[in-house]
User: Fold GFA family protein from Bradyrhizobium frederickii.
Amino acid sequence: MKVSGACHCGYIAFEAEVDPTKVLICHCTDCQTLSGTAFRTVVPTKEGSFKLLSGALKTYVKTGESGNKREQTFCPDCGTPIYSAPIGQGAKVLSLRVGAIKQRDQLIPADQFWFRSAQKWLSTLPTIKKMETQPVFGPRGGFNR
Assistant:
């Protein structure tokens, strides 16, 4: 499946080929910190298929709990995460951040990694109150309803 994506501000644009059956959720504490939420959803690219169409990525190298070093790439202007990858040059498989992909509604997770680090409250999501849009957030921190 061909996917396209962009960062929040539009500086970065990309496209790649992915297998939509390989989407996964990662609950590791690095993904929680780097995504700013409880988990990250990723899809691997087909080797060498990633094309950066505009912009220049900023790269940070993180050593994981396993000892593996991975490039973490993001937009230098707005900070949107784009992918992680093994260190080094040449054709490789990248782990695209599904949130930056325009076709994200078609990329349904089939697996979960690092579940030992999953936030316990995730199981309560079906019972949490839902709103179709965000209410106005007031200057004193409350929602104006």
The first strand starts at residue 2 and ends at 6. The mean pLDDT is 91. Residues 35 and 81 are 8 Å apart (CA to CA).
